[in-house]
Design a protein that fits this description.
The protein is α/β, with parallel strands linked by helices. The chain has five helices and 15 strands. Helices cover 34% and strands 15% of the residues.
């Protein structure tokens, strides 16, 4: 057999083997995906009390094609490919907490649990688990805690509704960078601090019912107490730490620069402090109070390193 015939034979054999491996790979991936989706749905059913019995049809006794696509509140890509794209269970009187098992519904586009009695916190890794979400509606529940900054990782979000819950803390700045977000509301919570969106992004209705929010479409200026927005009310220790940080920053920044310039004694040093001295005297001269004349201090420092300051009236 010639070399060319051998090559043709091997190529033909290879062309027969490759599709088989591809088919096996696709089947195995499909089986794993189906198992994950079933694990996700089982976790949701176990986590929520269901007085209306809407989840009773969620039975997974076998893995026949299209099984999970036939249960209520669930949508798939199609009847052949068992990949979840939507779990929609609004107004079902569900109670309980959002389970960690939802991470196995990794292909979800839509998660709608609005107008139930779901409590607890929003999972901090929700958008790590479900990165392809385009709709997240958790409004009308009893969710508490802070809005996770991780929601800023759901880059495909078009709709984010968190209104009418018990959420507190700030609106994460990460949400303002979501490129496709067009439907957003956090109304009727207990949120505080500046709104990270500009005034034209969303209407004020999206933020009403949060007495602590300011800026953005609300039009209100953020008051001087905003640096303490992360402190609990009447938390004196927290506020003391904020004040201490401000004072320490001033000391390090201003006096650090002062002593560096004093040691280096560059040529422009004298002119600079002479100008500062003149401006300061102009402001406080009318009060006839004792002042510290830095210009004299500098000249005396040049003449005698042991003389630093001169007080004059």
């Amino acid at each position: 057999m010639s070399n060319s015939s051998k090559i043709e034979t091997k190529f033909f054999q290879f062309s027969l083997v490759v599709p088989v491996f591809v088919f096996i790979f696709m089947i195995s991936n499909g089986v794993v995906a189906l198992e994950d989706d079933i694990r996700c749905l089982k976790g949701i059913k176990a986590a929520f009390a269901d007085p209306q019995g809407g989840l009773e049809s969620w039975t997974f006794d076998n893995s026949s094609p299209g099984l999970i696509c036939q249960v209520s509140g669930v949508e798939c890509w199609n009847r052949v490919e068992d990949r979840l794209i939507s779990v929609s269970l609004p107004t079902s009187e569900l109670s309980g907490q959002i389970p960690d098992s939802i991470q196995y519904c990794a292909s979800l586009y839509i998660l709608d649990l609005a107008d139930n009695k779901i409590s607890g916190t929003i999972p901090p890794k929700l958008c790590t688990w479900l990165p392809y979400l385009t709709t997240l509606d958790l409004s009308g529940n009893q969710l508490s805690g802070e809005i996770p900054a991780n929601l800023g990782d759901c880059l495909y979000l078009n709709k984010l509704r968190l209104s009418s819950n018990l959420l507190s803390g700030h609106i994460p700045y990460e949400l303002a960078s979501l490129p496709r977000l067009v439907d957003f509301t956090v109304a009727n919570n207990d949120l505080s601090g500046p709104i990270p969106f500009n005034s034209s992004s969303f209407s004020r209705d999206a933020f009403d019912g949060n007495n602590g929010l300011c800026g953005g479409p609300l039009g209100s200026l953020c008051d001087v107490d905003q640096p303490f927005a992360g402190c609990e009310k009447n938390d004196g220790l927290c506020r003391l730490m904020v004040y201490s940080a401000v004072v320490l920053g001033f000391i390090v920044g201003f006096w650090g620069l002062f002593f560096v310039l004093l040691i280096k004694k560059e040529k422009w040093w004298f002119g600079y402090w002479s100008f500062v001295d003149t401006v300061a005297l102009g402001f406080i001269g009318g009060f006839r109070a004792p002042v510290l004349v830095l210009r004299s201090a500098v000249h005396n420092f040049e003449d005698d390193d042991h003389q630093v300051f001169v007080l004059v009236k």
